[in-house]
Write a structure and sequence with these properties.
The chain has 271 residues and is mainly alpha-helical. It has one domain: Alpha Horseshoe (Serine Threonine Protein Phosphatase 5, Tetratricopeptide repeat), CATH 1.25.40.10. 72% of the residues lie in helices and 0% in strands. The protein has 15 helices and no strands. The protein has helices at 3-9, 12-28, 53-69, 74-86, 90-103, 108-120, 124-134, 142-154, 158-171, 176-188, 192-204, 210-222, 226-234, 239-254, 259-270. Helix 5 packs antiparallel against helix 6 (108-120) and helix 11 (192-204) packs antiparallel against helix 12. It comes from Hoeflea algicola. TPR repeats lie at residues 142-175. This is Tetratricopeptide repeat protein.
């Protein structure tokens, strides 16, 4: 399939959904710096990204009780908002981060997390302002540069977005989350071949997580290589997580009624 064909085949709604997922990756590290490590936050038995909706709700309820006791605590507030966002409760996450930002107006980590919440709620202008206020030109943070790039992509400025990603890679070479965001930038423009190049590189890097692999699987699937996409989505994961990733892949592809079309095409190509 040519790059031109790829561009005409993918609906804007699906592209936007994919790149909102990329935004989540770009900002995931911003709220995970040292201040989040505190004995007052309930510990979890496994990474948040591996939890299902019921587990995320349970964790949110536990952290919410701690937050209610001290809504000014930046670490607790950021963790609470992060869990709420992962559980799809973006409006509540934004409300939490608004309160935390009011009480911690100069904290860079808080501003970054506030930007994440704003972006999750679709308020990209405000999100960009928060991220830029968190940044310091003399000691730029690669995570904030990547986050800024993801927001600019959502605002329809891929040229500026990719400039931010490359600056982030200058600071943190081969960082998988940044490479993934750069790949997603090309997905948003329908250039699947270039996107796959960056995503494949991202997956090969130490520290690449399941979300990066999901994005590569989706891009491969959108090009009609369905069985390969399913193998990527299931690789190196527990049976539960592999099943969840394949379900995610099917759900994304079904948005453009492509599941059966891609599967039939792949079956014909392998026969």
């Amino acid at each position: 399939m040519s790059a031109t064909a790829s561009r005409s085949y993918i609906p804007r709604r699906l592209l936007t959904a994919v790149c909102v997922a990329a935004l989540g990756i770009s900002l995931a590290g911003c709220a995970s710096k040292g201040r989040l490590t505190t004995g007052s936050i309930p510990s979890t038995s496994k990474p948040l990204e591996n939890m299902n909706a019921m587990e995320l709700n349970s964790v949110a309820a536990g952290i919410g009780k701690v937050y209610d006791k001290n809504p000014k605590d930046a670490a607790v507030g950021m963790k609470y908002a992060s869990v709420l966002t992962m559980g799809g409760r973006t409006d509540q996450a934004l409300a939490v981060m608004q309160q935390v930002a009011i009480h911690n107006p100069t904290d860079r980590s808080v501003l970054a997390a506030y930007g994440k919440a704003l972006a999750g709620a679709g308020q990209f202008d405000k999100a960009l302002d928060a991220i830029q206020r968190a940044q310091t030109p003399d000691r730029p943070d690669w995570q904030l540069l990547s986050a800024e790039g993801a927001i600019l992509d959502q605002m329809g400025d891929p040229t500026s977005a990719r400039m931010r990603y490359r600056k982030a890679l200058d600071i943190k070479p081969n960082e998988p989350s940044v490479l993934s965001n750069l790949g997603m930038s090309y997905v948003l423009q329908g250039d699947l071949r270039t996107a796959e190049t960056y995503l494949a590189s991202a997956v090969r890097q130490p520290g690449a997580d399941s979300r990066v692999r999901q994005n590569l699987a989706l891009v491969v699937g959108l090009q009609g290589r369905f069985k390969e996409a399913e193998q990527i989505a299931s690789a190196e994961l527990s049976a539960e997580q592999a099943s969840a990733n394949v379900t995610y892949l099917r759900g994304m592809l079904s948005q453009q009624n492509a599941w059966n079309k891609l599967k039939d095409s792949d079956d014909k190509n392998t026969n």
